[in-house]
Amino acid sequence: MVMLTVGINRIRTLFKEDIYKCQGGTGTTTVINSDTGLETADSNTLLTPTIITTDKSIQVTHTIASTIGEGESYSEQETQLNSGDTSANRIVHHPLTKGANDEFVYITNFYFDSV
Amino acid sequence: MTNIFELNQSTKDNLGTPDDTKNTILVAILPEYCHIEEGPTLLYRNTIGSSFVLGHATNAILGTTELGQAGDYVSDIRERVINPKNTFHEHFRFTTFNDSGVTTGTFDTTDYNVQLDINELFQTQEIFMNEESIYYVTPYVDLNGGSTTFIIDGTSKSVSIIEGKTQNV
User: Which residues of chain A does B30 touch, with a Cβ-Cβ cutoff of 8 Å?
Assistant: First the structure.
């Protein structure tokens, strides 16, 4: 008895269809599983991502245009599910200041599998 | 004549419950797990230069900025790679971290591997660009004869990988 690839891909698709938006922020606290979202979200960066689907995986691309967040020092980012009620993940990185001519692009991969 | 030492030994061996651990069958519990793995996140920057961008404070003025994508637009300036649990795991589903300018092997997103013929190369883009320390790297190499060399750029570390051998850097 095994999980079938088509079954795993169905879970992947349900996850993908539940993705709402991505958002950046300026919080710097270390990520833990009990986090419920960003520490200090910047609502200007709450944007619809583009999503690429392949076998048992998806790639989520969140682009923050040059007209958004000039001078902000971004250090966290999330992918939201369920109309924004739930954060699927939160990443924290070394801060990066966004200049007036900068576009920021986050690319996150999610993999689905059975072992 | 009875050897008193052998007699005592025999008495001791027969006391208590016999040792039957060799008859115990250990049943391993092997459930099947279905999991979601959060992969690496790449943060890169594009700098628009003098490109015309509607809504931009200084780059949306007709006559002073170049319509469309200007010649000084620079894309894909990699700034951060954030790895969950400080672990980079390449699944070969996406070419995000393949350095296509150097790799001469076949990065195969159908069979999820990189195929190298003799003298072909595979090089990743930066896979650690944050504040983490790198403790170990585990490449899985399926060799069909011969050997290959694994090199960590920016260090003096390298190891020749030979079929059938496990080697540490």
Answer: none
